[in-house]
Design goal:
It contains 16 helices and twelve strands. The protein is an alpha/beta fold. α1 packs across α12, α6 runs parallel beside α11 and α11 packs parallel to α13. The N and C termini lie far apart (56 Å). Magnesium ion binds next to α7.
Length: 382
């Protein structure tokens, strides 16, 4: 029997799908949290009359209006309160918050010994060692929700660590697979927002087009599973059916396959190590062709930068992540070209001095510094 569920970042793509999976599994949802007091959140609140509603932000008047529309319900405000709810004893916490704002909830859930279903990339990328420490100290569980990492977890189940040789993270290659860097120079936000296989939020869709997303996943995989960066490879697999693979000492490779549908890894994070009832059809094999290609490090230099940030360690992955977020926003607003995203990341990594953040505040400080550096690089480039 799974524990009751706290869903943070509930109005986003993964948050909404989590609530759908929770209904399917007949899980009790005790708390629904989101960044802003939006009409979408009100809708979710009405669909879950038993849940506490927690809102991190919003102005005083927005909050008042939101609470009034849900009169009679428990509605709480403030980011600190979301962290408290993430620490509710004996809960599973889905952290589907976007951005570094999700890190305090990750740390709080793990420190309380909860199961954390982690869909917030920034937690592990920006603060991998802090997350590992909270996990070890709190005695909770960290179950990845990202399809690739869920796949790796499933490949590693029942295996001994000494037998792990190589981790092969698959990547669809995004909408510009096969393009040269020159051809990508004039790419528009509309072109970059069209992902061939997955429907996702805006930043992650752009990150898939630049392959920054895969670079972030390499860093996450390192912290989640303890593979050295030399043991991690990116393989381009345009059909997004093989979600990742692990090679073992005897030459065997295990792969995890299925349709690209986030409800599968979301459900697994909630039912692990058991399997829940299906929401998605099994893969239909006849007539399918699965292909694999080498990753193109020339057209997608973000991949190499991600490996470099991971190997440098310390603050480098946090800088990589923060600079990308600022650059993606500038690209979407038409203030930066597509290839400029990777240039800004590279320049920010050279500008911001390397440090070793040892607590949440120091990570937030690195993030702020990297954002400022990226913003001034973008302003200077125009
Ligand atoms: Mg992924």
């Amino acid at each position: 029997m799974s524990s009751p569920l706290v869903v943070l970042g509930a109005t986003g793509s993964v948050g909404r799908q989590t609530l759908e999976v929770a209904r399917h599994l007949e899980l009790e949802v005790t708390c629904i949290g989101a960044r802003m007091p939006s009409p979408q959140l009100r809708e979710l609140a009405l669909a879950h009359p038993e849940a506490t509603i927690a809102v991190a932000g919003g102005s005083a008047s927005e909050r008042k209006e939101f609470a009034a529309a849900l009169s009679g319900r428990r509605v709480e405000f403030g980011s600190a309160l979301l962290a408290e709810l993430a620490a509710s004893p004996d809960h599973t916490v889905m952290n589907a918050v976007v951005g570094l704002a999700g890190l305090p909830f990750t740390l709080a859930a793990l420190a309380a010994g909860n199961r954390l279903a982690l869909a917030n990339k920034e937690s592990l990328v920006a603060a991998g060692p802090l997350v590992q420490k909270a996990l070890a100290d709190g005695g909770g569980e960290l179950i990845p929700v990202d399809s690739e990492h869920s796949a790796v977890l499933q490949c590693l189940m029942g295996e001994e660590r000494s037998g792990f040789v190589r981790l092969l993270l698959t990547a669809s290659g995004g909408p510009f697979r096969g393009w040269s860097r020159e051809e990508m120079e004039k790419v528009t936000p509309d072109q970059a927002l069209k992902h061939p296989n997955w429907v996702m939020g805006r930043r992650i869709t752009i990150d898939s087009a630049t392959m920054v997303n895969k670079a972030l996943e390499v860093i996450e995989a390192h912290f989640l599973f303890g593979f050295a960066f030399d043991q991690i490879e990116v393989v381009v697999h345009p059909q997004s059916v093989v979600h990742s693979m692990v090679e073992f000492a005897d030459g065997s490779t295990k792969a995890h396959l299925g349709y690209p549908d986030m409800r599968i890894p979301i459900e697994f994070a909630l039912t692990y190590p058991a399997r829940g009832p299906r929401l998605v059809n099994g893969f239909r094999w006849p007539g399918q062709t699965l292909t694999f290609e080498e990753a193109d490090f020339d057209s997608f230099p973000a991949l190499e930068l991600g490996f470099a940030a991971g190997r440098q360690g310390g603050s480098a992955p946090a800088v990589f992540n923060a600079a990308d977020e600022v650059a993606v926003e500038a690209f979407l607003q038409g203030r930066l070209g597509f290839n400029g995203i990777t240039r800004v990341i590279s320049d920010a990594m050279e500008t911001v001095p390397l440090s070793t953040p040892s607590n949440l505040n120091e990570v937030i400080e690195v993030d702020r510094e990297a954002r400022a550096a990226a913003a001034s690089l973008i302003a200077g480039a125009c």
